[in-house]
TrEMBL record:
This is ABC-type metal ion transport system, ATPase component. It is an enzyme of class 3 (hydrolase). Part of the ABC transporter FtsEX involved in cellular division. Has ATPase activity. PANTHER family: AMINO ACID IMPORT ATP-BINDING PROTEIN (PTHR43166), METHIONINE IMPORT ATP-BINDING PROTEIN METN (PTHR43166:SF30). It comes from Actinoalloteichus hymeniacidonis. One of its GO terms (biological process) is amino acid transport. The keyword Membrane applies. Residues 5-244 form the ABC transporter domain. One of its GO terms (molecular function) is ATP binding.
Length: 341
């Protein structure tokens, strides 16, 4: 089955002032209807270019972009307008019209699409209720907080009942608490309205909170993609490991490790924690069987898709052969790394 959004061998090269910049390089991507799919990457990785190809604000240099089976790289401007009607978009800076009220902002795309006054009013009322901002209907954007502005942005993007919502760094201007509220609203847009959401972000925490699947973009290429839980649990590239570390904070390195060393004289190991890998039983009998004590000295465990995930660093104190035996037993259950002395 093909996805709702598909990239097949997409390359995008910009040429400006005699310079060629390859913003995207051989992108293959398939996003199923109903997914919340995140694209994560550092600044300059090509995220905005990718999202602009979905609504045909840019055209691919090579390859094709399919929306619901239609190759939009070959469409006339007139047919593109129809495709774009099925795609809503929200932005980092909200892009609301300052001279119009909340109601006026949300009604605007309906006016453009030719809805009559009564249907417009009904639709806007319904949307403002859905995003929880009814009491601000007659306020202007400048009178709203960032989170409220983004709620208006979401209502406006949903006005014409799109099947796809593009969220380009939609929470990057918000504090963590407001980010959480907006992400919960987007999740409702996905589950209650069935809208497929493509989230563009540089924050792994956003991926963790909302996405089912993720693709990691690095210098114009997808270096990793899959279910969020799998990518978090087994990051295969250095770029992904760096992103995952920003959320889990689960492994000591650099200064943290040096400080641990000064405080703990025993052998240090880091053990991976996942739902199906339980180390408690092995550890709880280590003293009686191997004369080895342990202290938990570092770690982080988060809940992701209903499963715990993370790492714990332990100091093992006891006779060397007892510690060796315990590490061997733990390795039968999970991944264990001994931190060099
Ligand atoms: N219109 C353009 N002309 C020339 N180069 C461009 C153009 N748009 C993007 N680029 C270049 O393409 C590369 C990818 O840019 P893009 O904006 O897609 O990355 P990004 O991941 O969205 O980064 P950011 O988060 O900083 O916006 C960058 O090297 C950028 O300079």
């Amino acid at each position: 089955m093909s996805g709702l959004i598909e990239f097949r061998g997409v390359t995008k090269v910009f040429e400006s002032g005699g310079r060629r910049v390859t913003a995207l390089d051989g992108i293959d991507l398939s996003i199923d209807a109903g997914d919340v799919f995140a694209i994560i990457g550092y600044s300059g990785a090509g995220k905005s270019t990718l999202v602009r190809l979905v609504n045909a604000l840019e055209t691919a240099t090579e390859g094709s972009v399919l929306i619901d089976g239609t190759d939009i790289t070959r469409l006339s401007e007139r047919r593109l307008r129809t495709v774009r009607l099925g795609i809503g978009m929200i932005f980092q800076q909200f892009n609301l019209m300052r001279s119009r009220t909340v109601f006026g902002n949300v009604a605007y795309p309906l006016t453009i699409a030719g809805w009559d006054r009564q249907r417009r009013t009904e639709r806007v009322t319904e949307l403002l209720d859905f995003v929880g901002i009814t009491e601000k209907a007659w306020h202007y954007p400048d009178q709203l907080s960032g989170g409220q502005k983004q709620r208006v942005g979401i209502a406006r993007a949903l006005a014409t009942n799109p099947t796809i919502l593009l969220a380009d760094e939609a929470t990057s201007a918000l504090d963590p608490e407001t980010t959480g509220e907006v992400l919960r609203l987007l999740k409702r847009v996905n589950t209650e309205l069935g809208v497929t959401i493509l989230v563009i972000t540089h924050e792994m925490e956003v991926v963790r909170q909302i996405a089912d699947r993720v693709a990691v973009l690095d210098a114009g290429r997808i270096v990793e993609q899959g279910r969020v839980i799998d990518v978090f649990a087994e990051p295969r590239t250095q770029t992904t490991r760096r992103f995952v570390a920003t959320v889990l904070h689960d492994q000591p390195d650099g200064d943290d490790l040096a400080r641990l060393r000064t405080r703990h004289g025993g052998r240090l190991i880091t053990a991976r924690i996942r739902d199906d890998q339980r180390i408690g039983t092995t550890l709880s009998s280590a003293l009686s069987r191997h004369q080895v004590r342990f202290e938990i000295v570092y770690g982080g465990i988060k809940e992701l898709g209903g499963e715990p995930i993370g790492r714990l660093t332990l100091e093992l104190i006891g006779p060397p052969d007892g510690v060796d035996a315990l590490i061997a037993e733990l390795r039968e259950t999970t991944e264990v790394e001994e931190l060099a002395a």
